[in-house]
Amino acid sequence: MWNSLKARLFQGYRTGKFPYVPPQLPENFAGRPEVFPEKCSSCGKCRDICPTGAVREVGRNLSIDTGKCIFCGKCAGNCPEAAVTMSREYRLAAMERDALIADGTAYMPQRPTDRKFLKFCGNSLKIRQVSAGGCAACELDFNVLNTLAWDMGRFGIQVVASPRHADCILVTGPVSDNMLLALKKSYDAAPRPVWVIACGTCAVSGGIYAGSAVVHDGVEKILKPDLYVPGCPPHPATLLEGILRLMDKKL
């Protein structure tokens, strides 16, 4: 016991200051795509090379669906006119699916509108995480939020073992056939009202698995998400910022 106490005193305070100060992002971090339709020559190279079909339009209507994007940066790297670039904007979460479209307009983080649930939720949020066929990348980055470095518990956010104790179901993965029943049972077991978070591009749209005969192209066809968090996987700051915004915390 004494050794543990000495080690803790030696380590000091290790929790980061996010969200009160911007996160420290790696040099190769690829955030929300920035598009410049006026630069686009309609060559279609970005659309042709995108592995998930995230580039919706080229030319004057150039737009990228970040809900399908895996942030590989191939579109930006192959655009001869620099009409697409990968920004450092880590805030990607949205409450509406249409808000995930990057089309050159100014990005404005959305705020929640469900005042009834906000009143019910108060200052805490209990999350039951369901891996619906995920590769474990999103699951790992969500688990990081429980570590000392991020400590999401300081905001009243806690992972619970049973959906019966949950305010929210956080779904990762493209929703495979094998996990469909488990997801539905978890949602049905949660007390009402309950929020749904689609965590990661697979949960939002199916990601690279979209169109497969054994997945359902994300959670939206099964349950209506209250928060979409794109990314492959989402950076911990992206996910935590989205959850805090869903709780209507001042950031």
Structure explained in plain terms:
By secondary structure, this protein is α/β, with parallel strands linked by helices. The protein is built from eight helices and ten strands. Strands 7-6-8-9-10 form a five-stranded parallel sheet, sandwiched between helices. The protein has a three-stranded antiparallel sheet with strand order 2-3-5, with no helix packed on it. Strands 1-4 form a two-stranded antiparallel sheet. The longest helix is centred in the C-terminal third of the chain and has 13 residues, at 177-189. The chain is globular, with a radius of gyration of 19 Å. The chain starts with a helix and ends in a 5-residue tail after the last helix. The model has no long low-confidence stretch (mean pLDDT 92).
Task: Please report the number of helical segments.
Answer: 8
Rounded to the nearest angstrom, the radius of gyration is 19 Å
Biggest sheet record: 5 strands, parallel
What are the secondary-structure elements, in order, as H or E?
HEHEEHEEHEHEEHEHEH
Terminal CA distance? 38 Å
- Molecular shape: globular
Instruction: Going across the biggest sheet, name each strand in turn.
Output: 7-6-8-9-10
- Number of distinct beta strands: 10
Strand content: 5-15%
**Helix-residue proportion:** 25-40%
What structural class do helix, strand and pairing data support?
Answer: alpha/beta
Instruction: Give the overall pLDDT as a whole number.
Output: 92
The low-confidence parts are: none
